[in-house]
Amino acid sequence: MNNKSSNEEKKAVSRRSFLKGAGVTTASTVAMSAGLLSFKAPETAPKRPPVLGPGDTEVRLEVNGQQESVWVEPRTTLAEALRDHLHLTGTKVVCDRGSCSACTVWLNDKPVCSCMTLAVDAEGSKVTTVEGLADGDTLHPVQEAFIEYDAAMCGYCTPGMVMSCAGLLKRNANPNLDDVKAATSGNLCRCGTYPKVFEATLAAAKKM
Fold it and tell me: Mind listing the pLDDT tens digit for each residue in 116-126?
């Protein structure tokens, strides 16, 4: 009899505890909805980056040693900004998806596909195009070698190929054949003039 009373008392207590807890939760929810309770946001909330677009935004670029300013949509690629806004058409757009490297330029002296790089992401970096390799009327040794060794055929891939090869010689003054092949492994040539490209680059390295 005592055990039965004890069990019933425990059940009653547990029911009272549950109802009490539910009542507190409901009251808190109502108070929050009514604005009686508030939570203070952390003072060290991370800052959000500025929102660009959807209209044109100003992008400042250093191209071939010159400070340039263009107004473009945030989706504009570096290749489009160079060709359509700065009229540097030496950079070619062939595949427009980073597969052929015909659009290769240097970003802080590193060869990149400009069709896969947004112009806004190039802001603050040093951009070098094929037009910027020559020193006035004096061609870069790689450009001279491409002419001398007939490494340019139809010409679609030539600017990107020149930039990749010149970039290699900037990093490695004495490359071997395997180095040249690795440097141009992403450059597609529809004419298949790779042997001439390799020969011209090795000759330019010796000249430099």
Answer: 999 999 999 99
